[in-house]
Amino acid sequence: MSLIRFFLPLFAFRLSFGGDGGSSSSSTSTSTTTNTQNIDKRQVVDTGSVGVSSDMSTVNVTATDHDAIAKSFDLAKTSSAATLDSVGKAVTFATDALKLANEGAKNVGTAYQTAQDSAQGLRFVVVGGVIAVAIFALRASGFKLKAA
Predict the structure, then answer these.
(1) Which terminus of the chain, N or C, has fewer Cβ atoms within 10 Å?
(2) Following CA atoms 113, 115, 117, 120 in sequence, which dihedral angle do they give, to the nearest 10 degrees?
């Protein structure tokens, strides 16, 4: 059937029957064209994203960061203040630690001096004890001192 449709226009001719020869003929041709477009309108979007699909429409999109930039500056200010506070506390702690270390060094020096003073005093006691033991030993042996 399709071959007939292909070759039919090649052999088409005009037929006219009767009339005075002044007749006219008209023909009407109708054509319908159907265009089908398959457009893939699937969208892949991630969490927090917006997908927009439109056919011959005006779409106005306003992008917003939902105050992310302003909040990041607030976070930076807060972090800076917290860091400064922490550094201040660390300096105070270090200063207190140095004071304690200085006091500890003074206490060690005082204890050392006290130990030296005690040792000096003990020398006199030890020497006195040795002399007393010597006198006792000499008397026990019957030794008598003669006055000169």
Answers:
(1) C
(2) -140
In the chain, % helix, strand, coil (3-state, to 5) comes to 55, 0, 45
Task: Say yes or no to pLDDT of 20 above 70.
Answer: no
Amino acid at 98: L
Distance CA 111, CA 105 (A): 10
Distance CA(130)–CA(136), nearest Å, equals 10
The residue to which tokens 């000169």 are assigned? 148
pLDDT digits (tens, 9 = 90+) for 64-106: 778 888 888 988 888 888 888 899 999 999 999 899 888 888 8
Q: Which two tokens stand for residue 71?
A: 């909040």
Q: Which long-range contacts (CB under 8 A, 24 or more apart) does 34-40 make?
A: none
Chain CA centroid to CA 123, Å? 69
Q: Indicate the pTM of the whole model.
A: 0.35
Q: Which of 50, 48, 12 is nearest to 29 (CA)?
A: 12
